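pasting for the record
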Amino acid sequence: MSAEHSSGAEPDSSPVGVSWGSGEDEETGVDLDPVLLWAPSGRRLLSGLLGLNIVLLGAALVAGQAFNPQGLRHQEPLVFLLVLMSLSVAWMLWYLLWARRQPGISPHTDHHAGGIAVTVVLMLFAAFSLLLHVFRMGYVIIMVECKPLAKVIFPFIEAPFLALQTYLLWAHSKDCIHKHKVQTRSGLILTLSADLLLWLNAVTEDTVHQEIELEKEVSLSNSSLPESAEDSDLSNATLCQCSASAACLAFRKGYEVLYPFNIEYYLMAGCLLYVMWKNVGRPAGGVSHGGHARRVTLRIVHRGGVLLGPVAGLLTLLVGVAIFALYQVWVGTPRHRTTAFVAFYGYHLAVVPVMSLCSLAGMVVQRMERREHDGGHNPTRSLDVLLLVGAALGQLSLSYFSLVAALAVGPSGLLPSLDLSYSLLSLLELVLQNIFIIEGLHRHPSRERGARSSTLEARHLCLQKNTMEVVDGPAGGSLLRKNKVSTSPSVDGKTDDKSSRAKRVTQEICAFLILANIMLWVIPAFGVHPQFENGLGKEFYGFTAWFILVNLGQPLGVFYRMHSVGALMELLITA
């Protein structure tokens, strides 16, 4: 029998028919009902296999719809997603309206999950995503005669799913559920699978849309061909496109502009649901550091102790906004197209090396402090590291593919040379920043300060006790006086001074990196794709292959920048 069955646990109050997964966690144990011994002993085996099969089937359907839309004539991917969202909504309603009313369902709280920064960003993305669905509803209502029924219904089901999920994550992302574990794990994995498939569907839909736009530009450039019967087919193909109606064009434009927020929302929501799924049955005790974090943040803001990093970051942000606006204006005109690429690459070639140096300096400071690392198991911390490394693979892969393309085309031209330099520096910056963040996340300076202060208090108590003993035992007075002199606060003062300088440097670095990463998130999130538009990758890999690489890699890169901002904010607060 596994270790999970060896420890005693409080019996689960769920019905017999569903209690066979009620005590699967290693820390809490499992009920030893002989009738239920047929159940697998893995803590999350059943729900994990359920989610894996759902995601694989949905991914196959979504990929089939993206690569061969004529093959799936009845909108099977959208129907599958509609069923999945409906089941998820039913489970969330059950959990919020009935299960949450039962006493003792969540006796523990994971204070590391659902931090303030993550929750605020999630709410922001949810608001923009709901606004996107409003635009999408208006668009499909206008185009209802030309759209399949599944596409018309889709935004009206997705909007309640998104709103209900956002409330669940806002109110209960820290919960460690200890009752109805089978239903809870199954519902969480079902909702998590829906998020992953909606993200994949959003990425592929955006890809198909951009491909249609590019093919439209190609067809317009070939408009000098002689007119034939193909013109009638072309006119028939445009019947289901937006007409000259201002409302239709406004709805479609709003839908296109807000698309990146919807993609990022599902990634964030999926991460929080994964933490909730890992925390089912987990006795996550501990004291919340939320109040301490807020106090430290207010002290940093009010006292103005950190100045250089925010000023440099704000300057980077302002220049980046100007470059972003100029790029969007210039890249659409053949006369200034090359200038737009030079401005984009020039900005990144100036900012990315500075970010690399800051990360390297932060690593040096961390090594000089020599603080202890936390070796305890923490699902949220493990997920943070996994997401940082996994999301960085998007930008890393694009950089390596661009590097090969630039070397193959030849770095003699201006654009190949700029793209080659940008790829190399991006690789260096990603590696150094990941090391700096991951090392910082595994350190607990507050715990060390607490240990040092408790040691000083123990010394004080010991000295007071020994001083009181001098009255009764004068023979030991001289020895005790020597001990009292030997515990001079000069060493602790030097240590605190050194720690204060290290804290100041770390906060300056984190403040700059936060603002720089925000700008590097904004640029690709709002449609700047120079690695596709400059033509080098398309020339070497081909249109289809390069388009798939860019549109799969860039959303991960955008998510990496956003997630690194949250991790850096935590390092800034707990420095």
